[in-house]
């Protein structure tokens, strides 16, 4: 009976020192619940979201009363009636004409001259005008894989052109971001696979760099020591040359200033070593 009581007391004392953690029994460990940490999954950003691609909205407005492309400057258009003008307005045209007019107005924001069609700015403007249209279509039909792939390729092409422009002409790059109301988000580098061969290469390169740096430091220290003896010998030889020139009545090529300059150099080197 006493044995059973002692066993129960021992078990109770053991259980008091044990904490319950997520259904598992572990000794002297705190659970996440003890710290009141609540993790929430971040909201998923849809692929058709404008903020994901970096588009903050084009400053281009296409009204229903706007005229179809390439008809504004025609001579017949000046004498056309109101009914004809209304028929050729965007209101009575297909969605393709609306898209073309929006693209032309976007190109006018960044083109360099009237006939500009091949510059980086124009290519970026064309892709930028296509992205909101693709995002709108994808929002209406999220399972359309063809539009999804086209949107992804268009955004990546524009990022590539922006990256090229950023390297070649940074001021122009900032200007086009402001004109098209864009935010450039560079893609992070892909993580490399850790392998023994690549790691050994990096370790070997680092080791070789350390060895070279140590040899350079030792060589610099050796040159500094030799520099002291060089300037000391220089002071003595300059004094000897000056005395010989005075003794034999020759034109003086060595002055007191040269000797003093060499002596100051020796003092500077000695001070640096003492520090």
Automatic annotation (TrEMBL):
<dbReference type="InterPro" id="IPR009068">
    <property type="entry name" value="uS15_NS1_RNA-bd_sf"/>
</dbReference>
<protein>
    <recommendedName>
        <fullName>Small ribosomal subunit protein uS15m</fullName>
    </recommendedName>
</protein>
<keyword id="KW-0496">Mitochondrion</keyword>
<comment type="similarity">
    <text>Belongs to the universal ribosomal protein uS15 family.</text>
</comment>
<dbReference type="InterPro" id="IPR052137">
    <property type="entry name" value="uS15_ribosomal"/>
</dbReference>
<keyword id="KW-0689">Ribosomal protein</keyword>
<keyword id="KW-0175">Coiled coil</keyword>
<feature type="coiled-coil region">
    <location>
        <begin position="209"/>
        <end position="272"/>
    </location>
</feature>
<dbReference type="Pfam" id="PF00312">
    <property type="entry name" value="Ribosomal_S15"/>
</dbReference>
<keyword id="KW-0687">Ribonucleoprotein</keyword>
<dbReference type="InterPro" id="IPR000589">
    <property type="entry name" value="Ribosomal_uS15"/>
</dbReference>
<keyword id="KW-0809">Transit peptide</keyword>
